[in-house]
Write a structure and sequence with these properties.
about 1000 residues; binds flavin-adenine dinucleotide; binds iron/sulfur cluster; five-stranded antiparallel beta sheet; 30 strands; alpha+beta; about 45% helix; seven-stranded antiparallel beta sheet
Length: about 1000
């Protein structure tokens, strides 16, 4: 039995008392002190881990004023703060051991949109893609780009001066910030923007906090103009933190403090609101994919593209290219990047052009193509061919391929994982090829694996060498390589932090800036934050401070991970491998990843949060000498004992009395998970929360009693077949108000569905399906077998939505096949979701034996509900291993696609149907929409996919009383709108849960796609 984990890092008493005072001070945001909440922000995408004292989530600028004014009291002078946005930094920018102030949860409103003036004012917790979604109807966008645009915030972008693809034309974030509202460490609220001429002179004279800042910055930049000019590299990715070069324009006598704040990594002020300028969305876009015989040729050829006025030039090396080729994603681009016969493509430049003017766009693209033709003819520059695409869909396919391939780099097998620490160096583009050759040599000398890609137009190279940081020697290697790369960038006139900011690399700043300028940075820090209270250790310290800058040697995640024994780490790779890239924080409500995160805006309730908690849980257990792997093995083989039950009751009572156990915090985070499995396929690392969640629940409930509803859910496949036999008796009971109330309060279950009436058995009684008779099936000829299909029942569709199974039978028959409905065998999914793994293993073994036996018949088998069919593939594989055998249960669309050519095609016509695919299905099988579309097209109908996230039901999640509100909110996020807009009778949903949720929320059911197909054949 797992021991109680009462160890947790205590909060420093001064911080504790500050947080108490803050709660009584009029601060309206959330204050979280729990260990789990602190852990959730102890990591970002970097190699570092640092536990804060607490996390607070302000709701407004005023909240920050309140907080910082309180912190100004003598008793709280030691309290420090670190701002945080999306937490996607790659170098620990937002990590610290003080109070993390997260602006992303509540401060994400669009405040003013001035479309005519092409500007917008936002709260800085807004995610970049969200902003672009809101301004797109005005044909405008916020142009600085970054790969994390679906989760990084404007505040984070401003503070790292983010940029990415297209930066030659669109610039960096600082080029688009017109002014900000910032709260200084003493609670003063300032507005920034360009101040010129007399107004600036007045500011410089002002006897105020603001005047002091203007004077300090002005004297720093005017007093050292020559040195600034000499030191700051002349790069598109100019030097960030603090940008002395662009803050003052002597020709117009204009000073803009915004420029100093951009790239300051939260070390000068909290930026709460910002005016941003917007750019018209280009009307015409073209991508020219230029193929090379080597990566080096691609790099050396890049300046030509820049000369040819490209918007952006992105490159990938052969490793990235090959990863893409080996992945299913290659199918989507293989016609756009065709192989060149007789040549090996080992480098690729993706050259984009964009313009508002069609003729200008055409001229630029044609000029490049003419130049390429010439080079190919002369056999020069290693160019082996090129292809262009002008439509947005193709462009997006190419970029999606690049993104996926880069993600695949992170999914390396083994203990060595790609890590960020030299991942964004920049050198002048004309030196990039030579620089990269030396860089490669350096990494090769250390025997490291890596893939490279980057923005060659801006001289930015992305590379994450694979290291195992649980090995202390490799941590030493990280430091060595870091120093070497820093020196190498200097040799080529570039910089180490070309894109992502400094964070723990701040220790390189003094040498980089030189003593004079670094002293000026410290002077500026002193003016803004004299006592080093804002994100201390980052960028620089105040002038008189003796404190150190943070260092590359700071405590890393590997330090904690290595405390977990190797076999436990290997047994829980699902949680260990999360690298914190934050893709699971995706703001987009129409994306399936991750509903619980979207619902709560609480990072604990994300795959990353859950993985981090499980890692800490394993570490804490290991610290007590407990082996969770051994316990798991024991639980799988031992039965229930009276002693165990007594212990469980004792511990459960202690829990009720409020006894702390870190396992409860982990459990709380697991309870919020809908087990939708979106993470298991959408996360680039395939962090599969439902799998480790089930394992956690199994161990947790060895110590603590389960609630009755867990048993109710996990036994559903045992009692439902009985209930389904007598719908006339069961349904009136289920509909009874007293029973409903009792179920809601005692069992914690609501809106339980009614069993089908008539039942499937009754529907099938008139014999549309052949009787299951193994001997008869064995005796069929090969021809007859090819015309037969076996339908595998699941408990939900068969007993609660029998008409769908019946219609599937009728469809198969109408298409000329002989359907046979197999006897019901429990699938076990519900038991798995609740962590009854021993029972699940037994059910899976039984079912697999049955299905393997049938598979030997050589007749296709097809199930109905996606999540149960996919359970045969994934959960069965994980629990049974090779004992699963090789039976195959197809999804309806998979079977239909196999037989499609035997069915006469028709011309698509009529009103479209609308497909709402199940989350588990569309994430595990990205071609779901296309597959159904092909089938509908073949049978003479049009099908349009509807982009939706989770419907909020997800198995039994939405039926649990405690989840009811969340379930309804989730439905409202992305389903309610299209369901209200589209003709209901033409809306189709593949999931039983989704259909139940629509029925509950809209009072009307929707069909399964097979029912629509059946109507087409009628
Ligand atoms: C896979 C991956 C790809 C990436 N690609 C790019 C890329 O293409 N281009 C790029 O530029 N970056 C990239 N990054 C880095 C990262 O996404 C950016 O630095 C981003 O701007 C950080 O935004 P955030 O909201 O996550 O900020 P956080 O990481 O939370 O914070 C970043 C810094 O900003 C400070 N901060 C945040 N909000 C505020 C505020 N309101 N007031 C004051 N200080 C604040 C924090 O203290 C911290 O120092 C990538 C990261 C990953 C993981
Ligand atoms: S769970 Fe996956 S998507 Fe989320 S941070 Fe971890 S690796 Fe990234
Ligand atoms: S299963 Fe779904 S709800 Fe749970 S962590 Fe994964 S994406 Fe989030």
């Amino acid at each position: 039995m797992i021991p109680r984990i009462d160890l947790q890092q205590q909060i420093n008493p001064t911080y504790f008392s500050f947080l108490e005072a803050l709660a009584d001070s009029g601060f309206r945001g959330d204050i979280e002190r729990g260990y789990a909440s602190r852990l959730a922000v102890a990591t970002d995408n970097s190699v570092y881990q640092c536990l804060p004292q607490a996390v607070v989530f302000p709701r407004s600028s005023q909240d920050l004023v309140v907080m910082l004014t309180l912190a100004g009291k003598e008793a709280y002078r030691d309290i420090r703060f670190s701002p945080r946005g999306g937490g996607t930094g790659t170098n620990g920018q937002s990590l610290n051991d003080n109070i993390v102030v997260d602006l992303s949860r509540h401060m994400h409103q669009l405040l003013t949109l001035d479309a005519e003036g092409r500007r917008v004012r936002v709260q800085t917790g807004m995610v970049k893609d969200k902003l672009n979604q809101l301004v797109a109807p005005q044909d405008l966008f916020f142009s600085p780009d970054l790969s994390t645009s679906n989760r990084a915030t404007i505040g984070g972008m401003i503070n790292t001066d983010a940029s990415g693809q297209g930066s030659l034309v669109y610039g960096k974030t600082s080029d688009h910030v017109l002014g900000v509202t910032a709260v200084l460490v003493d609670g003063t609220l300032i507005e920034t923007g360009p101040v010129s001429g007399e107004a600036l002179d007045q500011k410089l004279e002002e006897d105020s906090r603001e005047g002091e800042l203007y004077r300090c910055v002005y004297h720093s930049v005017t007093g050292h103009a020559g040195e600034i000019e000499r030191r700051f590299p002349k790069l598109n990715r100019f030097l960030t933190g603090y940008d002395l070069k662009h803050v003052y324009d002597k020709h117009t006598h204009t000073l803009d403090l915004t420029r100093i704040l951009c790239g300051s990594e939260g070390s000068l002020a909290f930026i709460t609101e910002a005016w941003l300028d917007l750019t018209p969305i280009p009307k015409y876009r073209t991508l020219v994919n230029v193929k090379y015989d080597s990566f080096q040729s691609a790099l050396r050829n890049a300046p030509l593209m820049v000369e040819a006025k490209a918007l952006s030039v992105e490159t990938v090396d052969s490793r990235v290219l090959n990863l893409a080729r080996e992945d299913i994603i290659w199918h989507s681009v293989s016609d756009l990047i065709r192989d060149v016969p007789g040549k090996v493509m080992d480098g690729l430049n993706m050259v984009e052009y964009a313009d508002q003017d069609e003729a200008a766009q055409r001229d630029k693209v044609e000029a490049l193509c003419a130049r390429l033709d010439e080079l190919i003819k002369r056999g020069e520059a290693g160019i082996i061919g090129y292809q262009r695409c002008d439509d947005l869909a193709s462009l997006n396919r190419i970029y999606a391929m690049r993104k996926k391939a880069v993600g695949l780099l992170g999914n390396a097998k083994g203990r060595k994982k790609p890590v960020a620490f030299v991942e964004d160096t920049a050198v002048p583009p004309e030196h990039l090829a030579d620089y990269i050759m030396e860089f490669r040599q350096l990494l090769d000398d250390h025997g490291l694996q890596y893939g490279m890609f980057g923005h060659v137009d801006a001289g930015v190279l992305h590379v994450r060498p694979a290291l195992d940081l649980t090995d202390p020697e490799q941590e030493v290697m990280l430091r060595r390589i870091s120093d070497q790369v820093n020196a190498l960038t200097a040799k080529y006139g570039g910089l180490m932090w070309g894109e992502h900011g400094k964070g723990y690399r701040s220790e390189y700043s003094p040498v980089f800036f030189g003593e004079t300028l670094f002293t000026e940075l410290r002077r500026i820090k002193s003016a803004f934050d004299p006592f080093n209270r804002l994100n201390p250790g980052k960028i620089c310290t105040p002038l008189d401070s003796l404190e150190q800058l943070v260092s590359v040697d700071a405590t890393k995640r590997g330090f904690f991970d290595r405390q977990i024994p190797v076999h436990v780490r290997d047994g829980f790779t699902q949680a260990m491998d999360c690298n914190g890239n934050g893709l699971c924080f995706d703001f987009e409500v129409r994306s399936p990843m991750c509903p619980s995160m979207k619902l709560t805006a609480d990072r604990r309730h994300s795959p990353k949060g859950r993985a981090g908690l499980v890692r800490e849980w394993l570490r804490q257990l290991s610290a007590q000498g407990f082996d969770p792997m051994a316990e798991e093995a024991a639980v799988m083989s031992r039965g229930t004992s009276v002693k165990g039950m007594v212990e469980r009751i004792k511990h459960t009572l202690a829990r009720r009395r409020g006894e702390y156990d870190f396992s409860h915090e982990v459990k709380e985070a697991m309870d919020g998970c809908l087990a939708c499995k979106a993470c298991s396929s959408q996360c680039p690392i395939k962090v599969d929360v439902p799998t480790f969640r089930a394992r956690f629940l199994q161990l947790y409930h060895q110590r603590y009693q389960r609630p009755p509803k867990d048993y109710l859910v996990s036994w559903v496949e045992s009692y439902t077949p009985w209930m389904a036999k007598a719908p006339g008796l069961v349904n009136p009971v289920m509909k009874n108000q007293w029973v409903k109330r009792g179920a809601a309060s005692w069992l914690g279950m609501v809106d339980m569905p009614l069993v089908s009436n008539p039942s499937l058995k009754t529907l099938l009684a008139d014999g549309p399906a052949g009787q299951f008779d193994l001997a008869r099936l064995q005796g069929l000829s090969a021809e007859q077998k090819a015309k037969t299909v076996l339908i595998v029942q699941d408990p939900f569709t068969s007993f609660y939505d029998a008409q769908v199974v019946f219609d599937l039978v009728r469809l198969a028959k109408a298409l000329g096949f002989a359907p046979v409905v197999l006897p019901f065998k429990p699938n076990g999914k519900a038991a798995h979701v609740k962590g009854f793994l021993r029972r699940f293993a037994a059910m899976a073994a039984d079912s697999a034996q049955f299905l393997n036996q049938l598979a030997r018949l050589g007749i296709p088998m097809m199930g109905v509900d996606p999540s149960l069919v996919l359970c045969y593939r994934d959960e069965y594989d994980k629990i049974l291993g090779p004992a699963r055998g090789d039976f195959e249960v197809l999804l309806p669309q998979e079977w239909l696609l196999r037989v499609l050519e035997q069915i006469p095609a028709r011309q698509p016509a009529g009103e479209p149907w609308y497909l709402f695919a199940h989350c588990t299905e569309k994430t595990a099988k990205p071609a779901t929409h296309q597959d159904w579309g092909r089938i509908f097209g073949h049978l003479g109908a049009r099908l349009e996919p509807v982009a939706v996230g989770c419907c909020g039901m997800a198995g039994t999640y939405g039926h649990e009383t405690r989840n009811l509100e969340g379930s309804r909110t989730l439905y409202g996020l992305s389903w309610a709108e299209p369901m209200g807009r589209l003709p209901r009778e033409r809306c189709l949903a593949t999931g039983f849960s989704c259909r139940s949720q629509v029925k509950r929320m809209e009072g009307q059911p929707v069909k399964h796609p097979v029912q629509a197909l059946l109507s087409l054949l009628a």
